[in-house]
Amino acid sequence: MMPAVTQPGPVAETRRDIVPADCRPIAVTLRPDIPLADAIGEALDAENCAGAWLEIKSADVVALSYVTPALAPDAEHAAWWSETYRFDGRGTIHHLGMMVGRDEGAWFLHGHGRWSPATGAAAMGHILAQQTVLSAPVIAQRIGFGNAYFDRRPDPETNFNLFQPTGDALAASDAPYALLRLAPNQEFSTALDLVCAELGWQSAKVFGQGSLIGARFDDGSTLDSLATEFLILNAEARADGSLASGPEIAIVGIDPDDLRHGVLQRGKNPILITAELLLQRQG
Length: 283
Fold this sequence. Notes:
Layout: E1 16-21, E2 23-30, H1 36-47, E3 51-63, E4 65-67, E5 69-70, E6 80-81, E7 85-86, E8 91-103, E9 106-117, E10 123-127, E11 133-134, E12 138-145, E13 148-155, E14 160-167, E15 177-182, H2 188-199, E16 203-212, E17 215-216, E18 222-223, E19 229-234, E20 236-238, E21 248-252, E22 259-263, E23 271-281
Antiparallel strand pairs: 1-15, 2-12, 3-8, 3-11, 3-12, 4-7, 4-10, 5-6, 8-9, 9-10, 13-14, 15-23, 16-19, 16-20, 16-23, 17-18, 19-21, 21-22
């Protein structure tokens, strides 16, 4: 049986929030020596984007702070965050994915990634972008949003403030992209395929991040952790459900030293709190 977690609030009727969208590939240069969150806001203002999915690879930092998943301290949430971890000096971002949206009209970003200090082991988690500073200009690239974006709002089911897709939706038949939020306790791979079918698309490439209830991989290995955070490395969805395997992800659980990277087993990996995703139509 697939695991499930009881959330503190009422189960929302809508489990897949979808906004078909007009987006475009972008590459932006991020300024060093200021908080990463501010550098990204500046860059997107210059691009006149409503939001973006951005990725950074191989970037040096003079400061980086992050948290990892943790058990909830009370019954008000299904999971929580660890203490804040900080680099003692310089380090390197190896791969960081960021959904950039809005919170009460201001830029807000949510990012998962892997990094390491100049001396020390690699780590993974949820970046604190106001406490992270690049040491040199860095190019971030992927997809800028036009008519739609993610807006951070209270989510009664999970009792968190979460990104929800919003904006002027295009007709699915005309849209090259779709912004997507997945609610808890639905199987990840299956939900992606259902979204393709709902949109009337044959297939889509998938970008994004989120949390799972542990993880079960194609090679038979498992990550036994109630709370996790993942970053998609490579993923596809098909309306006919014909893919043999699920998304390829990097993931960390409650043990911050247990980093995993692998292909998910289809039908075995439910969402814990949320998944914030961008689908690029392929057919």
